[in-house]
Amino acid sequence: MIPKLISEARKIVFKFGSNTLADEGGRINHALLAEFADQTAALMQRGKRVIIVSSGAQVAGLSTLDRWARKQDIHYRQALCAVGQVELMIAWGRAFAAHGIHIAQILLTRSDFDDPLRTLNMRNTLFTLVDEGIIPIINENDTVSVEEIKIGDNDTLAAQSAVLWSADLLVLFSDIDGLYDKNPKEYPDAELLSEVRDLSVLKDRITAGGTNSFGTGGIATKIDAARRTAGYGIPMILAHGGRPRVLEALASGTQRGTAFLA
Ligand code: ADP
User: Fold this and answer.
1) Hey, what long-range contacts does 22-30 have (CB within 8 A, 24 or more apart)?
2) What is the full per-residue pLDDT of the chain (262 aa) written as tens digits?
3) Distance 46 CA to ligand 1 centre (A)
4) Rounded Cα distance, 149 and 170, in Å
5) Would you give the DSSP letter of residue 22?
6) What would you report as the CA-atom Rg of the chain, rounded to the nearest whole angstrom?
7) Whose CA is nearest to atom 10 of ligand 1?
8) In ligand 1, which atom is closest to the CA atom of 219?
């Protein structure tokens, strides 16, 4: 199913979580970005259009200012994201420049999606950029987003962006191969669900513990993202962003993941 979804989609939103973008030392994984850019450039040559939702400002910030690693103060955390956002975009920019592709930065907050005029402007800007062969890279604007007005996680932001742009497919890259019947990090015998057709039965089929449990973040926001996009007929794939040449592997069926069919 996953190869079919990728081959049929013309407009694809890819989302990368922070863990996926970081290497083992907690710094931005430039090799991963380069490999992804290479595969994306090939997709674009075949006529596909791409938007990226990228977390990782904090990771990138710590790569630059590691002496801030232990600062928990909210102002420092937001300041760190402001520093890191630049580094993050430099990293993406470099990865795509190798293929002659330009990128554009779009920073959004929850209120942007609540205001019809702003949404219209965002939509028009996205269409213009993509029409010109530029890849918009979206992130939450952490500098202005305090807890009360936050979208909160980039799974939701990615789903909202996919809906806004009328995408054909949303792909969430995380640090697991897909949705399992229980948390694979706690249970080695957890089984991957390769297809989800009915989100309403998931609560009975899935259990998870720990901080990333169902309903408390982690996998829950991914399922919410699938629900959000399904409402607009947009399917979603959840896959491991760190697998070798993951995009090509998913497209050829040699890498597994979970397909949420709208
Ligand atoms: P990201 O940073 O990529 O958005 P998160 O860490 O927020 O990812 O969420 C992914 C994590 O959710 C996985 O690493 C896994 O430990 C956890 N998880 C909990 N329950 C499940 C489940 N049933 N299936 C898959 N992953 C699960």
Assistant:
1) 22/56, 22/59, 26/59, 26/62, 26/63, 27/59, 27/62, 27/63, 28/56, 28/59, 28/60, 28/63, 28/87, 28/88, 28/91, 30/91, 30/94, 30/95
2) 999 999 999 999 999 999 899 998 889 999 999 999 999 999 999 999 999 999 999 899 988 888 988 888 888 888 999 999 999 999 999 999 999 999 999 999 999 999 999 999 999 999 999 999 999 999 999 888 776 667 878 999 999 999 999 999 999 999 999 999 999 988 999 999 999 999 988 877 887 654 444 444 589 999 999 999 999 999 999 999 999 999 999 999 999 999 999 7
3) 32
4) 24
5) B
6) 18
7) 218
8) 12
Give ligand 1 pocket residues (Cβ under 6 A): 17-20, 174-176, 179-180, 182-185, 206, 208, 212, 218-219
Q: Which of 1, 5, 3 is nearest to 13 (CA)?
A: 5
Contacts with 106 (C-beta within 8 Å, 6 or more apart), sequence order? 122, 125, 126, 136, 137, 138, 139
Among positive and negative, which fits the CA dihedral 194, 200, 201, 206? positive
Residue nearest to atom 17 of ligand 1 (CA): 212
Residue nearest to atom 27 of ligand 1 (CA): 183
pTM of the model: 0.95
Domains in the chain (CATH in brackets) are 2-260 (3.40.1160.10)
Residue with tokens 């979580």, as numbered in its chain? 17
Residue 50 CA to ligand 1 center (angstroms) comes to 24
Q: How far from each other are the two terminal CA atoms of the chain, in whole angstroms?
A: 12
For residue 212, report the distance from its CA to the centre of ligand 1, in Å.
Answer: 6
